[in-house]
Amino acid sequence: MALLATAGAGKSTLLRLINRLETPGEGEVLLNGEPLQACSGQRLQAIKKDIGMIFQNFNLLNSKTVFHNIAIPLILQGRDKAFIQARVAELLAFVDLSDKIHSYPNELSGGQKQRVGIARALATNPSVLLCDEATSALDPHTTVQILLLLQEINRRYGITIVLITHEMSVIQKICHKVAVMQAGRIVEQGAVFDLFAQPQHPVTASFVQSVVHDRLPQRVVSFLQRDNGARALRLEFVGATAQQPIINHLIREYAVEVNILFASMSEVQGRILGFMIVQLLGEPDETERAITHLVDAGVKITHV
Fold this sequence. Notes:
The chain is α/β, with parallel strands linked by helices. It has two domains: 2-208, Rossmann fold, CATH 3.40.50; 218-303, ACT domain (Alpha-Beta Plaits, 2-Layer Sandwich). Helices cover 40% and strands 23% of the residues. The chain has twelve helices and twelve strands. Strands 4-5-6-1-7-8 form a six-stranded mixed beta sheet, sandwiched between helices. Helix 4 packs across helix 5 and helix 5 runs parallel beside helix 6. 29% of the residues are buried.
């Protein structure tokens, strides 16, 4: 699950409400169906132990080794030494840092520091993992590696991951659901593919267009409007439709010429999402028949 918003929209505050670092002024926060406001004492502490946290800037203790940084939550729980050693070794193997067990944070790269942070967050076997801009401080290659690791955590351990980000490309790669925030409110939410294909709110649309390019430059649009009146259409292809030779069939079957102005294709949640902007040149009756054929083939059409 992703929380998507620009800076200052309230996404980090919402994360602090989930882990009870903040208390809501109104409404309620439910974790696994349990209202957090009603919890206190030992019950609240037990709930907090069920929530792991990954930070943007790693938040490691520079004076402690990798082993000790990961062991801290277990030490605070009062676990015995043998358990701690076994658990830390298991987590280091999972994040592929077994050879760094005695290293200090200043000896690690940014990606390695974040892997240590992830291992620490997993130490207590949480059911929920909160990620606050976990990849924002990393280079693109390292970001991909960390996202793949988060995917593996979700797949192997069944942990719910709540990911705060302003990067649509991060959501495109690993998330299943997304909620879009503006000024402290959720303005749109749903499955990631649905929001990529059909964003309803202007904020969502602006984020989507940063990774899924489906618009012509305004200068080109103005030129088309002054042109010979040929129709400019935006075609949307989803799933199997994106892999069919629909345009080729259109040219063969109808007396129209197709001028392709723009085309793009993206993969979202394992499904193909394609966009094309075209001009149909021909007699009005024939272009209408061609458009009907596109609609019947499952292509969504809007006028540019």
